[in-house]
Amino acid sequence: MTRASNFAFGLTLVLYLAAMLAAFHHLAFRREGSARAATRLATAGAAVHLSSIVMRGLAAGRVPWGNMYEYATAVGFLVVAGYLVLERRSGVRTAGGFVLGLVVLSMAAATMLYVPPGPLVPALNSYWIRIHVLAAMTGSSLFILGTVFTVLYLVQDRRARRLTETPAMATVGAGLPADHAEGADEPVASEEVAPGRLPAPGVLDRLAYRTIAFGFPVWTFAVIAGAIWAEQAWGRYWGWDPKEVWSFVTWVVFASYLHARATVGWRGRRAAVIALVGFVALVFNLVVVNLVVSGLHSYAGV
Amino acid sequence: MADPMASFAAVWRALRSMRTALVLLLVVAVASIAGSLVPQVVNSPGAVASLYRDQPVLAQVYQATGLFDVYGSWWFTLAYVLLLVSLASCLGPRTRALVRALRRPPQPARELETLRHFAEGTVTGSPEQAVDRARRVLRRRRYRLGRPNGEAAVAAEKGASREVGSLLFHGSVFLVVVGVLLGKGFGFTGQATLIEGETFTEAPASYDQPPSRGRFFTEDMHRGFQVRIRAFEVSYRESGLPREFVTSVDVLEEGRVVRREAIRVNHPLEHQGVKLFQQGYGWAPEVRVRAQGRTVWDGPVVFLAGEDQDRRRPWRGVIKLPSLRPQVGLELRLFPDPVAALAGGPMLEARDPFLVFTAYRGDLKLTRAQNVFDLDRTGLKRFEEGGIGAGQTATLPGGVEVTFTGLREYTQLRVARDPGKGLVLAGALLLLAGLLPALYGSRRKVWLRALPDPAGARIQVGGLALQRRAAFEEEFARLARDLAGVGTLPGPS
């Protein structure tokens, strides 16, 4: 079972890589065929990935997210699955290569932390590991997806600004309905026109917002569930353990992002930068807190 | 110097602005990071102590700036108190505005054609009938309707849940804070190390150190019930990883057993609002020491695990015998499973346990504050070393007899009471409940006008969504179909 799971893991990487190449091919040459191929390859990859995760769980006889390697690969799966759902719903297909590239990189990095499947230490042996960790992974994957869209938004926003600075293009973006200023999920970029091959900044901004606004309550729930579990396992619901500190920081920063989008003068690029800060906190919590800082969660690390 | 009231008003205005709240949120985030990078007294006192030893200057700086206790420092407190004030200052007016808006019926609109969403159609029946039908349709869709004003028109709106949710979310933060403060003020936490067979009384003297109590916690809030440790067991997997730690206990009230329970990791015991958690465990060898014809020590000694976590090193314990002249101190090393240790493996279970001792005599210096697990060797001289198996006796020079009579286990329980945690949980759940409509709700307004028409009534429908406009597009199309009949005309886009 372990070997089959590891084989499926390798196959997943190959499929994701192929999907990434197809997606970039689509981005570069606008071929419909390669976009379809990218989606199919990524879907196949996600299916194989899921089978790898399930087999790993069977081999270990527990949930397949009991250490850092498993956590990272499961988050990778959720990111790809989330992206595929979003692609279907929004019709935006040009961001796939970036999402897959990020997932392939992080999965490859996770193999350095590979450990054979094994049982959990008593502290982790609770049904809360299903609830708390699953919510944390789902929230993280949504924040990661939101970050990819945010980065692409910043790129496109910059391009759009350059275009509007040239006099010939000065009219682009003028004449937007005045009511655009209201409502946090409305286009805040001055552009609904795509500069280049990636989607328009407004489209990317909305996608980023929706993904993060979906991730935020999930993350909130993960933190609450973690506190309930901590109360059961350690006798206090909050103790400023490094993991707790950084998940709180992540929560506060993404809360700031949501607020920034409703604050005059912070919309658009400034809000996007806050989202990137949130992503840094998220990654710091996963990598540095697990591997470098010692705390109560550190045994869950590797 | 400006007028103090004016500057107060200026500060108040600044606190009420969203921008200030945003900055304060980020300040709280940055401030809390500090506590994860600098060791905290509450979480890792050992790391703080070693920093004092290795880098005294840096430690002084940390101490002076409150970095060893970030979450209790004045600047962290200031940051979150300001945030709470800022939150409260905008919650008040927003709540009033919401109440006012909910009391005020939706207002009629003049020009429907200029609205972002507009549709027109013709239905049979009089305009009045059409309006009645529209009111029913809208009410079924949970729109709030304006008062009939004699005209054949309807004004409706929906989606106040967005603001209600947002207020609930932000208000719940206060509930959480109150719960935290309540727990801090009226709760306590302590730790008790208990050898199998011992009985613990939930009273101050029973704890290893005085329990850390809240400011408003008084002595009489200890419950006084008793917990008898029937047995402690730890089981291991073949790999040497622990599988489970179980403390079997009887709970006694006034000497009578009222409950028989097992305390496991992740399965605390709760009794009278006090929770007992499995926290640690270890070996407690029973030792008898006789000297000068009398027994000077007879009982179990709590041993600490070796510095390593994998149980390969011996356990450490100390016996202090101040009643002997000269005073005697024994440093003890326990090998629970010497054969496993020789093979280089971990010592998990007791198999032919072996006790190695180093005996000192002189002045134990007990008049000074001491760690029970260490000997202060400055006034002591080593006079004998040796080892004994279970049941064996070693006779030291001077006629001191040390007998290893048996081996027991001890369990370490964390005992805590937090009367605020229910409120914290309620606050957290309300916060989550408010978050969903606050993020996903949208305010929508719909107006309808029915005009006389030879075929029946001509219906004009206009709509506006303040959020989630793309989603409203579809909703409006369906609404227009229901309100204006099948013959809906697409409005000007």
Helix count, DSSP H or I runs of 4 or more residues of chain A: 8
Structural class of chain B: alpha+beta
First-last Cα distance of chain A:
21 Å
Determine the mean pLDDT of chain A: 86
**Helical/strand content category of chain A:** mainly alpha
Q: Most extensive chain contact?
A: A-B, 57 and 57 residues
Strand content of chain B: 25-35%
**Total beta-strand segments of chain B:** 21
Order of helices and strands of chain A: HHHHHHHH
Low-confidence stretches of chain B: 486-493
Computed over alpha carbons, the radius of gyration of chain B is 37 Å
Oligomer: heterodimer
The biggest beta sheet of chain B is recorded as:
7 strands, antiparallel
Low-pLDDT sequence parts of chain A = 168-189
How would you describe what is shown here?
The complex is a heterodimer of chains A (302) and B (493). With 302 residues, chain A is mainly α. Chain A folds into two domains: 119 residues, Four Helix Bundle (Hemerythrin (Met), subunit A) (Up-down Bundle); 168 residues, no CATH class. Chain A is flat, with a radius of gyration of 20 Å. About 7% of the residues of chain A have low confidence. Chain B has four domains: 98 residues, no CATH class; 102 residues, TATA-Binding Protein (2-Layer Sandwich), CATH 3.30.310.80; 104 residues, no CATH class; 129 residues, no CATH class. At the A-B interface, α6, α7 and α8 of A face α2, β8, β11, β18 and α9 of B.
